[in-house]
Amino acid sequence: MIHSTAVVFAGGKSSRMGQDKALLPFANYPTLSEYQYHKLSAIFTHVYLSSKEDKFNFDVPIVKDLYTQISPLVGIVSVFETLNVDEVFILSVDTPFVTQEIIEKLFSYPKNYDAIIAKSSKGVQPLCGIYRRTLLAQAKAHLTQDNHRLNHLLKVSHTKFIDFEDEKAFINVNTPQEYEEALKVMT
Fold it and tell me: Most exposed: 2, 15, 48, 79, by fewest CB within 10 Å?
């Protein structure tokens, strides 16, 4: 058990999916959100979902976005402004194949970074990593400047990128076709 907080980001627009992907059934769970919540609850002492609203049909603690814009940056700022934590593991709801081993490897690095982020052959995975409160001021500055690019925030912060070879672990479920493929993997 990792004695830390995890937050599943489930508040995106889901424009490529055509419907809210966080609410689609997945594996043996009624929703992808519930699947991710239960997976992370077996690893972390505290798990939350991040969203603009409580749209979930199960009992789960929620960190609501405190700003009107829709972006992961808004979620990160909202998490640190809502929760009294110094670090948080963030995982996107649409990456169901990230394993406990990947998470444990990220936590094996020293805590002297603002962020420790997974990186695969497809590039940086900003929604699979550890964020620390030390980057909150920089994140809020980005929000004020309407610069929502997480890669830029990570570039100007003290960030450690950890390479992973298993790119399948970072498959995103963004489209109906990707969703169907992910369901096949789970069966």
Answer: 15
Q: Which domains does the chain have, with CATH numbers?
A: 2-186 (3.90.550.10)
User: How is residue 135 written in tokens?
Assistant: 């980057």
35, with CB counted inside 10 A (0-12, 13-18, 19+), is buried
Tell me the C-alpha distance between 120 and 62, whole Å. Answer: 29
Torsion sign (Cα): 166, 16, 128, 98: negative
pTM, to two decimals = 0.94
Cα distances (Å, whole numbers) of residue 4 to 40, 54, 70, 182: 11, 23, 26, 28
- Read off the pLDDT of residues 119-139 as tens digits, 9 standing for 90 and up: 998 899 999 999 999 999 999
Q: CA neighbours within 13 Å on the CB side: how many for 161?
A: 13
